[in-house]
Write a structure and sequence with these properties.
This protein is an alpha/beta fold. The chain has helices at residues 13-24, 36-55, 61-70, 94-107, 123-127, 161-173, 189-205, 211-221, 228-235, 237-251, 260-267, and strands spanning 5-9, 28-32, 71-74, 85-88, 113-116, 136-141, 150-155, 177-182. α10 (237-251) packs across α11 (260-267).
């Protein structure tokens, strides 16, 4: 199955990044959200990103123009009826995702693939909201989408080979490395990543080391591009907490129990870069 027209539900950082990379390989992309101002803000961010790439001579002005023209903002989900693929990138709330997939199932042509960018929720539970569970799959991009090289593909039990192969080929078209994960809480990436982040927070909580020293050690000794606490701020501490809670509930294993300090930061509204303060303070 060829994927030529793509819909993206949600114009946050992830949704905007997904729209950008899909548009950059010549795909027509509908970018949906509830308010035009939200979409326009993301389009402005995409333009700034493209301008930076032009300044670094990675792309030229023609590429920028092509990407811009390939992204079509919309407040009407019905315009996505003939899309070959729709990628959902909204908040990590199962009921919300199930509601969206239920609507898309009624709107879209029978062969449309419905993918979720969820970072931890079971794909099979999202698929059951549709009458096409064989055409539902997880497509978990990493942030920032334009520069990260992997695409984690999550196969639920009902996901067909045709659906999986179509997403696999899209990953190759996007110049990303496709990695297949079973449909388990946290998949591969967050099952490994978030437990490391949570343990780094525990080190601070228990007085093992300061915020700065924990990050310094992991960047200098483990050669990480950024420390786990800097990464947590980048991801969003509320997102980190949510993923840990999903895994703790899903596995019932105490090793996934969120650190109390993480809960305290989220309760205080210190969510990281997006609020100006997390483990570090941002301008």
């Amino acid at each position: 199955m060829s994927i030529n027209t793509i819909g993206v539900i949600g114009s946050g950082l992830m949704g905007g990044g997904i729209a950008q990379v899909c548009a950059s390989i010549g795909r027509k992309v509908y970018l949906y959200d509830l308010e035009i101002g939200i979409i326009q803000k993301r389009l402005d961010t995409i333009i700034k990103s493209l301008d930076k790439q032009i300044a670094r001579r990675r792309i030229d002005a023609q590429v920028k123009e092509a990407v811009s023209s390939n992204i079509i903002p919309t407040l009407d989900m019905n315009v996505m009826a003939d899309c070959d693929l729709i990628i959902e990138a909204v908040a990590e709330k199962l009921e919300l995702k199930q509601s969206i997939f239920g609507k898309l199932d009624k709107i879209c042509k029978p062969e449309t693939i419905l993918a979720s960018n969820t970072s931890s929720l079971p794909i099979v539970q999202i698929a059951t909201a549709t009458n096409r569970p064989d055409r539902v799959v997880g497509a978990h991009f990493s942030q920032p989408v334009p520069s990260m090289k992997s695409l984690e593909i999550i196969r639920a039990l009902p996901t067909s080979d045709e659906t999986y192969n179509a997403i696999y080929q899209l990953a190759l078209d996007l110049n990303k490395v496709p990695v297949c994960s079973a449909d388990v809480p946290g998949f591969i990436s967050n099952r490994v990543l978030e437990i490391m982040v949570n343990e780094a927070i525990c080190c601070v909580y228990e007085g093992v080391g300061t915020i700065e020293d924990v990050d310094k050690l992991m960047t200098m000794c483990a050669n990480f591009p950024m420390g786990p606490l800097t990464l947590a701020d980048f991801i969003g501490l509320d997102t980190v907490l949510h993923i840990m809670e999903v895994m703790y509930k899903g596995y019932g294993d105490p090793k996934y129990r969120p650190c109390p300090l993480l809960r305290q930061y989220v309760d205080a509204g210190w969510l990281g870069r997006k609020t100006g303060r997390g483990f570090f303070v941002y301008d």
